[in-house]
Specification:
There is one protein chain. By secondary structure, the protein is an alpha/beta fold. It has one domain: Cytidine Deaminase, domain 2 (3-Layer(aba) Sandwich), CATH 3.40.140. It contains 5 helices and 5 strands. A 5-stranded mixed beta sheet has the order 2-1-3-4-5. Strand 3, helix 4 and strand 4 form a beta-alpha-beta unit. The longest helix is centred in the N-terminal third of the chain and has 18 residues. The chain starts with a helix and ends in a 17-residue tail after the last helix.
């Protein structure tokens, strides 16, 4: 297993943690010099915060760790393609590298419906590496939403949490 796969698997573990808490299963890690310095999973429901996306939480933790908002020597690994808000944060944090698993044809802002991270009018651009462990990242989301649709309990997670094949 190469480093990219190893770090994406850590992001996938974060996504499963989100699913187990009844959150949309998105996970992210920020890596600097071969070490995870920020990690996060969606916490919108728990925090009642529309900005509590996995990427935002991981970026904030990494910036605190480095004591700098500039994450110029870091890589962000995230299970699905980031949304517009998170793509904007990636650009603003000056992240040089983004690796994501599954594309997002409904909200993806790194090439699917928008391409914020490569917008030439912005002061920083990132060429995303897309599709790493794509099938496994997609399956985490698919399982969560299949389980959620199958419940008639207002979308609450089952007692034993959402399951994944990761």
């Amino acid at each position: 297993m190469n480093d990219d796969e190893r770090f994406m698997r850590q992001a996938m573990r974060e996504a499963v943690e989100a699913a187990d808490a009844g959150e949309v299963p998105v996970g992210a890690v920020v890596v600097h010099q071969g070490r995870v310095i920020g990690r996060g999973h969606n916490q919108r429901e728990m925090l009642n915060d529309p900005t509590a996306h996995a990427e935002m939480i991981a970026i904030t933790a990494a910036a605190a760790h480095l004591e700098s908002w500039r994450l110029e020597d870091c890589t962000l690994y995230v299970t699905p393609e980031p949304c517009a808000m998170c793509a904007g944060a990636i650009v603003l944090a000056r992240l040089p590298r983004l690796v994501y698993g599954a594309g997002d044809p409904k909200a993806g802002a790194c090439g699917s419906i928008l391409n914020v991270v490569e917008e030439p009018r912005l002061n920083h651009r990132v060429k995303p590496d897309a599709g790493l462990l794509e099938a496994e990242c997609s399956e985490i989301l698919r399982t969560f939403f299949r389980d959620r649709r199958g419940r008639g309990n207002g979308g609450q997670p089952p007692v034993d949490g959402a399951r994944s094949h990761s």
